[in-house]
Write a structure and sequence with these properties.
alpha/beta; five-stranded parallel β-sheet; binds cytidine-5'-monophosphate; Rossmann fold
Length: 400
């Protein structure tokens, strides 16, 4: 189906890379029409003529240019768009967006636009990390704007760090996903647990683990993007919940288990991505445990097992329900994962060797192997956690 994408280019040196993006979009087998809008600063980095030749359309730069159509130019353009992409987006343009300013053609189109918006920042590392820039990004994300994180590397200003425009192929893929959203989980209810559980020692101290919630949150986001009703049961994490999911925050493994059991009967798909602690403190102290001044002291904590959540749910699995677990291993990865798949009555398990570079906790990528109950083994290359999430959901759909 034909789609129209607005490509807004702002004044960053990365602007030249957008020529390649426009060219790719125009060559796409689907019929994609590209309208390029450039800020005045962008035209200093790459000429409108280049963009006009590649897009096959007049490039819009001037708020006051006479419009060949009867409509006011910015309204007329905004109405045609199925997606508006701002790439590269400068700190200044992001700030204007976050504050609703409209002082040139592109910022005016942003306000008049009702289609989804994708912003791809590119700037100096310190500018990108600046608290005000981050606050503006957060504000826009909270209002539903899609962002791509910049990559790290050597920047044009000579600094090495985050701020590089992501590879054009990645931007192109993201545009395709937003233009042709998949709806293959429409009408399905997905229960995901994520984050890490915490077990109290006393009112101020607790035992936890290295889980960050990144993988589980990516799964919840992917499932919601594909049309599912998502319930995200989350232990401790610093992450913002994805938009459109029902978040249930929990603290310990026992509470997480109870909540998961409550939702299980109404769910079609259950994914256990939480880093559940295997032990809790037998008797948490009611008051803060005091240290003895000036004395060497030893403190013995008695630990007892927590419930195995997936095993508990696996024992109550309903016909047609798909259950997925994770196995984060440091040795004999596939063998250990297979054992867990069977013990927990799962449909498939996502095994990862957390000793590998770019896999496991606290990183944005993962390297996993999917093992299903029929014995099929699918190793995946190193991918972003969001792409791993997409591959997991694809496998769920294939097994449904
Ligand atoms: O800890 P283990 O390696 O057995 O974890 C494998 C899977 O089981 C993970 O998906 C994890 O979320 C789940 N699990 C659980 N309850 C536990 C421990 C792990 O649901 N107590």
């Amino acid at each position: 189906m034909p789609r129209t994408v607005g490509i807004g280019i702002t004044g960053s040196i990365a602007a030249y890379k957008i020529a390649d993006l426009v060219s790719k979009l125009k060559k796409d087998e689907q019929d994609i029409d590209v309208i390029v809008i450039m800020t005045e600063a962008a035209t200093r980095f790459i000429t409108p003529m280049t963009m006009q030749t590649l897009s096959g359309r007049e490039v819009l730069t001037d708020m006051w240019a006479p419009s060949s159509q009867w409509k006011v130019q910015h309204i007329g353009v905004a109405e045609q768009l199925d997606l508006l992409v701002i790439a590269p987006a400068t700190a200044n343009f992001i700030a204007k967006m976050a504050h609703g300013l409209a002082d040139d053609l592109l910022s005016t189109i942003v306000l008049a636009n009702t289609a989804p918006v994708l912003v791809v920042p590119a700037m100096n590392t310190n500018m990108y990390r600046n608290a005000m820039v981050q606050e503006n990004i957060k504000k826009l994300m909270n209002s539903g704007v899609h962002f791509m994180e910049p990559e790290s590397g050597l920047l044009a200003c000579g600094v090495t760090g985050e701020g590089r425009l992501p590879e054009v192929d990645l931007i192109y893929e993201k545009i395709k996903c937003l233009l042709y959203p998949r709806t293959d989980l429409m009408g399905k209810r997905v229960l995901v647990n994520a984050g890490t559980t915490c077990e109290n020692i006393d009112p101020v101290r607790f035992i936890t683990n290295r889980g960050t919630g990144k993988m589980g949150y990516a799964l919840a986001e992917e499932a919601a993007a594909r049309g599912a009703d998502v319930i995200l049961v989350s232990g401790r994490t610093h992450l913002e919940p994805p938009r459109g999911v029902k978040l249930v925050s929990v603290w310990g493994a026992e509470e997480m288990c109870e909540i998961m059991m409550q939702y299980q009967p109404a769910c079609d798909i259950i994914i256990g991505a939480a880093a559940v602690g295997d032990f809790t403190v037998a008797r948490a102290a009611e008051q803060k445990i005091k240290k003895l001044e000036g004395k060497k002291q030893s403190l013995v904590l008695e630990l007892v097992s927590t419930p195995d959540i997936l095993k508990t749910l696996g024992g109550k699995k309903q016909p047609g329900q798909i259950m997925v677990g994770f196995a984060a291993e440091t040795e004999d990865v596939l063998e250990n994962a297979r054992k867990k798949l069977i013990a927990k009555n799962l449909d498939f398990i996502v095994a990862n060797d957390i000793t590998m570079d770019g896999a496991g906790f606290a990183v944005d990528t993962n390297i996993v192997t999917l093992i299903d109950r029929h014995g099929e083994v699918t190793p995946l290359p190193k991918m972003s956690k969001r792409d791993v999430a997409a591959a997991i959901i694809d496998k769920v759909i294939a097994m449904m």
